[in-house]
Structures are given as C-alpha cells and as structure tokens.
C-alpha cells in the first residue's frame, strides 16, 4: 500500500511540475487548462497506463482545481459552461485516445 501511494505521489509531483513548466509562457485565457486536461485524458485512453503514469503523472498533469477555481470566480452560467466544457472535452479526449489505441491494435 505504501509503495503504491509513493509511486502515485511521485508521479503526481512530476506531472504537476511538467504542467507548470508548460504553462509558464502560456497566455492566461483559460483554454490552455481545457487543452491540457483533454490531452491528459487522451493519453490515459491511448496508453492505458498504470498507477505511476496514469493516476500519478497524468493525474498531476491534469487538474480539476483550475477548472473549479475558474467556475467559482464566474457567474452561475459561466461556472456551468466551464464545467460542461471540461467534462465534455475530457470524456471526448479519453474516448479518442481509447479509439486510437484500438485502431492500431492496442490492448484492452
């Protein structure tokens, strides 16, 4: 149990640091958060990774907290829109990654 928790924690720290480095020079319009989250979901569907890379790295690379903060600072309609866009793009990203993995003969 501790080994798995340590692997997930180390992966999450590496994923969060990678995200931070990628966003250092990015504009702060909000779309970059949706794009990075969708990219992480695509990678999760495509690679079907284990605990370090999946729950850890990709979990740390993507973030619900940025979407939640944006929603909390918006009107009710803006918050609903941000959450709907996030949910839709992340689910679509995972399905696209999973479909791509199957299209090239990947494992289930």
Helices and strands, with pairings:
Layout: H1 2-23, H2 31-47, H3 51-61, H4 64-72, H5 76-103
User: SS-based structural class?
Assistant: mainly alpha
Name the helix and strand elements from N-terminus to C-terminus, one letter apiece: HHHHH
> Count of DSSP E strands?
0
* Overall average pLDDT: 89
| Model regions low in confidence, pLDDT < 50 over at least 5 residues | none
| Relative helix content | over 70%
Q: What proportion strand?
A: under 5%
- Computed over alpha carbons, the radius of gyration is 15 Å
SS field, number of helical segments: 5
What does this structure look like?
The protein is mostly helical and 108 residues long. Helices cover 81% and strands 0% of the residues. The chain is built from 5 helices and no strands. The longest helix is centred in the C-terminal third of the chain and has 28 residues, at 76-103. The mean pLDDT is 89.
Task: Tag the structure with descriptive keywords.
108 residues, 81% helix, 5 helices, 0% strand, single chain, mainly alpha
């Amino acid at each position: 149990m501790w080994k798995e928790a340590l692997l997930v924690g180390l992966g999450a720290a590496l994923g969060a640091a990678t995200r931070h480095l990628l966003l250092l020079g990015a504009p702060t319009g909000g779309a970059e958060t949706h794009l990075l989250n969708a990219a992480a979901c695509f990678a999760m569907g495509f690679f079907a990774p284990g605990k370090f890379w999946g729950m850890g790295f990709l979990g740390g690379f993507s973030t619900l907290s940025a979407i939640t903060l944006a929603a909390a600072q918006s009107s009710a309609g803006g918050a609903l829109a941000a959450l709907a866009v996030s949910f839709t793009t992340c689910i679509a990203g995972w399905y696209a990654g999973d479909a791509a993995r199957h299209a090239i003969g990947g494992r289930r």
